[in-house]
Here is the input.
Amino acid sequence: MNWEAIGAVGEVLGAAGVIVSLLYLAVQIRADAKAKRAASMHDQSDAYRDFLHTMATDEDLAEIYLRGIRDFSSVTEGDLVRFGSALGFLFRVFDEAYFHWQEGNLDAHTWNGFESPMGDMLAYPGVRDWWSTRAHWYSEPFRELIRAKVADAGAPGLYREPTA
Here is the structure.
């Protein structure tokens, strides 16, 4: 065997090693992206569950929340801070979920778990009134989503609304 043949075999082996390394790297990047998506879904779901848990266990806040979503102007003083903070927390969760949905980090099933309650909540006049005071805190793409949800909102009905 001559040196040219040995060099050619070395080049082929080196190229094969590069290809194997690139394939391994692609598999690792894909696995990392999948793990990041799973973490995003978990974090967003945890935050939403925390909100629901707080509403279920804090009787005073639940009463303020119910009163506030129906009539924002009825919430005053310290209750206004609690109501605004609760909705601010929730809409920040929705905003982050929307961002992750747009980036491809939430699957359709998980996104629906945020989008549907958001639409139901925006049927309430108190939520829309609160939003009008805080929309500027959120990203323009999210504000556009909220505008569309408000335009499509039906009658409130999450909490056995009183009939007129």
About this structure: The radius of gyration is 25 Å. DSSP finds six helices and no strands in the chain. The mean pLDDT is 89.
